Amino acid sequence: MSELAKLTIAQARDAMRKGETSSAEITKACLNEIEGAGALGAFAHHTPEIAINQAEAADARIKGGDSPDMCGIPLGIKDLFCTKGVPSQAASGILEGFKPAYESTVTTQLFDAGAVMLGKLNMDEFAMGSSNETSVYGNAINPWKVDDRALTPGGSSGGSASAVAADLCLAATGTDTGGSIRQPAAFVGITGMKPTYGRVSRWGIVAFASSLDQAGPMTKDVRDAAIMLRAMCGHDAKDSTSADLPVPDFEAALTGDIKGKTIGIPKEYRMEGMPEEIEKLWADGTAMLKDAGAKIVDISLPHTKYALPAYYVIAPAEASSNLARYDGVRFGHRAKLAQGDGITEMYEKTRAEGFGAEVQRRVMVGTYVLSAGFYDAYYNRARKVRTLIKRDFEQVFGDGVDAILTPATPSAAFALGENFDPIQMYLNDVFTVTVNLAGLPGISVPAGLDKQGLPLGLQLIGRPWEEADLLNVAYRLEQSAGFVAKPGKWW
User: Fold this and answer.
1) Which run of H or E residues covers position 63?
2) Cα torsion through 93, 96, 100, 101, rounded to 10
3) Residue 424: which pLDDT band, with cuts at 50, 70 and 90?
4) What are phi and psi of 98, to 5 degrees?
5) How confident is the model at residue 417 (pLDDT cuts 50, 70, 90)?
6) Res. 162: pLDDT tops 70
7) CA distance linking residue 141 with residue 143, whole number of Å
8) What is the pLDDT of residues 320-332, one digit of tens each?
């Protein structure tokens, strides 16, 4: 049965259509794997009964000749997505006991296509973190291990990354505000895609920073990312930022032919002190694309150096506004009050008890930069920098560049508890935040191992709304890299 959990979406889809296996069998194999993988901390809430019911319904659909690509595919759902009647806490104590009366648009579309929900996945609290260490559930752990050290699976979609890499599910949903799909995907050796802002509805996803958040697939390979992304996409009238554009058949675009494509290599991403292994991986990836017939050009994105500071002004500012709704009045945790306490004390105590340290830090930073006297100096200035970063990309794409190749992360996965300094933790987003600030699609593809045997990823950045082209370049890179390594099972 464990072999069934190792299938890709494409393999499972084709096998179920041929009658070689069933969704019920694959789902039971995944549930069995999850039961034995508690040490990974990937799942926060288990939904086996829902999974079996959905799997049986999917099998009936397939038997009747109605089999969308995602029909019968067992998935893990990041705890940031609201799922009707199932705990949806965003890994925060302040949403303890919250079971939504509604379903997010993304999960609605996946379930309408016949997908199966195995449970809710661990993550950083309110998606604020790069290591999954801010979760109220405790750490998710990377299935890759070195010298018995517990490694981070990255964040915020750490549970999603760990579950897919360990074959606990065939794929998972993630969200990406500054790299929260691409960085964990790189750390565990899977594929993670952040679509163009507006390509996937944000309705029913617990908000972190509304102008940056975007949902995407976390999968075992690029073909699976193409299949799952198509099911997640589509215009949604409930989300004012959702784009009313046709959704292409992303899988059909995977020809592997990139002859004549122009790939840009940005000089600003060559950071001082970059590890030699990352430099070599980047050079190797460049050579692979060149050998496949792409034209390689050096490009400049001059405002890249301002991206991290701009991001860490804009994201906390939006977070402080979005998280103001968590006050103990309508849902979630409410603090016990002393005699004489009023509404103000209830707000203060509830938020102090319910929010973790990192969330409190970002809320305070965000409130500060939005306060009178500092709004122009910080928030407005950061918004102007964001515009300049977006223009850098527009200039490059306007000059004929089809995609941009960069490292996905500045290092391989680090040990849990290693990055105590918040600034050091924030630097994990150095290669990814520009993509969110500019609203562009980006994808991380596993491309090699470091000297410790840990996976390293390369990032491709594409033109807005051209995910099909970006996926095809990623597919070619994946074929050339030939990454097939898997973590040894220790859990």
Assistant:
1) helix 48-63
2) -150
3) confident
4) -75, 120
5) confident
6) yes
7) 6
8) 999 999 999 988 9
pLDDT of 426 > 90? The answer is: no
Torsion of CA 9, 410, 135, 86, to 10 degrees: -20
User: Counting beta carbons within 10 angstroms of the beta carbon of residue 342, is it exposed (0 to 12), middle (13 to 18) or buried (19 or more)?
Assistant: exposed
The predicted pLDDT at position 419 comes to 64
Measured over all CA atoms, what is the biggest interatomic distance in the chain, rounded to whole angstroms? 74
Tokens of 374: 């500092």
AA letter at 7: L
Instruction: Return the number of other C-beta atoms located less than 10 Å from residue 145's C-beta.
Output: 17
Residues near 57 by beta carbon (within 8 Å), at least 6 away in sequence: 114
Q: Could you tell me which residues come within 8 angstroms of residue 162 by beta carbon, excluding any fewer than 6 positions away? A: 40, 41, 42, 122, 140, 141, 142, 143, 153, 168, 188
- pTM, rounded to two decimals: 0.97
Alpha carbon distance 491, 42 (integer Å): 12
- The dihedral through the CA atoms of 207, 212, 215, 217 has a sign that is negative
**CA dihedral sign of residues 224, 225, 226, 231:** positive
> 90-94, 140-144, 217-221, 419-423: which range is least confident on average?
419-423
Which one-letter amino acid corresponds to residue 281?
Answer: L
Q: Which burial class, exposed, middle or buried, applies to 347 when counting CB atoms under 10 A from its CB (0-12, 13-18, 19+)?
A: middle
Residues marked as catalytic: 78, 156, 180
**Sheet strand arrangement including 43-46:** 43-46, 116-121, 74-78, 171-176, 214-219, 191-194, 442-449, 455-462, 403-407, 262-266, 295-299
- For residue 390, the surrounding DSSP H or E stretch is helix 381-398
Q: Give the rounded distance of the alpha carbon of 34 from its chain centre.
A: 20
Pairwise CA distance, residues 194 & 47, whole Å: 26
Task: Find the distance separating the first CA and the last CA of the chain, reported in whole Å.
Answer: 17
